[in-house]
Design brief:
Blueprint (H helix, E strand, L loop, with lengths): L2 H11 L2 H4 L4 E5 L3 E6 L6 E2 L3 E2 L1 H20 L5 E10 L8 E10 L3 E10 L5 E11 L1
Antiparallel strand pairs: 1-2, 2-6, 3-4, 5-8, 6-7, 7-8
Length: about 130
């Protein structure tokens, strides 16, 4: 898998509104994928803070790409559970969304996501997910 291959997955498998987030593949290893969520006025709420809905969508998208990386191809899947905790606001900088696979079996996959400021490296959001592999 390459960054270009991961990036090209976005228009192939994700809805136009997810593509409008402007996510960019930044890095990956055997168990994780990192996406950049650019700062945008369209994703900000009062005080120029990134809205939670955008963070949750980015986290979900990053985990699907982590599964693509893990399996070497897209496998149909659906989110069964996502538990999200918002730790602090993110404003004035891009977010880095790192999705890590905890376990991927035949029917279910489990993952953890950390979103942190691209400049200060501070965690702003943590999520755990479960996916059904179809």
């Amino acid at each position: 898998m390459t960054l270009d291959q991961l990036q090209s997955t976005l228009p192939d498998y994700f809805a136009p509104w997810v593509q409008a987030l402007g996510l960019r593949a930044e890095g990956f290893d055997a168990d994780s994928v990192t996406l950049r969520l650019p700062q945008s006025d369209q994703l900000a709420r009062a005080g120029n803070m990134l809205c939670g809905q955008a963070m949750m969508a980015a986290a979900d998208t990053a985990m699907v790409l982590a599964l693509v990386n893990h399996f070497g191809e897209f496998r149909p899947c659906t989110t069964v559970q996502m538990n999200t905790s918002f730790l602090r606001p993110l404003s004035g900088q891009d977010g880095l969304v790192q999705a890590r696979i905890v376990r991927a079996g035949k029917a279910l996959a489990f993952g953890e996501i950390d979103i942190r400021g691209a400049q200060d490296g501070k965690s702003v959001c943590r999520a755990s997910t479960t996916y059904a592999l179809l």
